Amino acid sequence: MTTPSQVDLDPGRDYPLAARRPELLKTPTGKRLDELTMAAVLAGEVAPEDLRIAPETLRLQAQIAERVGRPQLAQNFRRAAELTALPDELVLSIYNSLRPRASTKAKLGEIADELESKYSATLCAQLVREAADVYERRDILAREDGR
Asked: What is the largest CA-CA distance in the chain?
């Protein structure tokens, strides 16, 4: 059985995915896009988690981005796919921790380690480590002494 990430997408033929390849897209709970109707909402058949994007959808979007020569966008989609496994509160906490002068290098290292070990979010962990190095070079890390 072929999984969506194993599909060889052609941007000219397959994009936008929702219009041209809807059979590849499912919600995180497994619902097809055509099941997300107003009637289903009114009948109580659509839950909030049905309206979230699935990591597989983001990986498909990454494939499209890469094929049209947008590697940075593809990498962003792949990181976003990893973030779908994290609780919303943690995503917001990490976002705030990445603000200049908000965290020490050690704190950013702890965040990266947690992303990698607890959530297998290796691309996101790599980004946090890169941010820590850049912040250190630019002298925009929080200071250990709180100043």
From this structure: 57
Three-state SS at 104: coil
State the DSSP string of 25-71.
-B-TTS-BGGG--HHHHHTT---GGGGSPPHHHHHHHHHHHHHTT-H
Asked whether the whole model's pTM tops 0.85, one would answer yes
- Are 78 and 62 in contact by the 8 Å Cβ rule? The answer is yes
C-alpha distance from residue 47 to each of 29, 51, 56, 99, 126 (Å): 9, 7, 19, 33, 33
**What are the residue boundaries of the structural domains of the chain, listed by start?**
1-84, 86-147
How far apart CA 10 and CA 123 sit, in angstroms, is 25
The distance in angstroms from the start CA to the end CA of the chain is 57
Please check whether the domain covering 86-147 is classified as CATH 1.10.3470.10.
no
pLDDT in tens, 80-95: 999 999 999 999 999 9
Structural tokens at position 41: 């909402």
pLDDT 10s digits, 34-77? 999 999 999 999 999 999 999 999 999 999 999 999 999 999 99
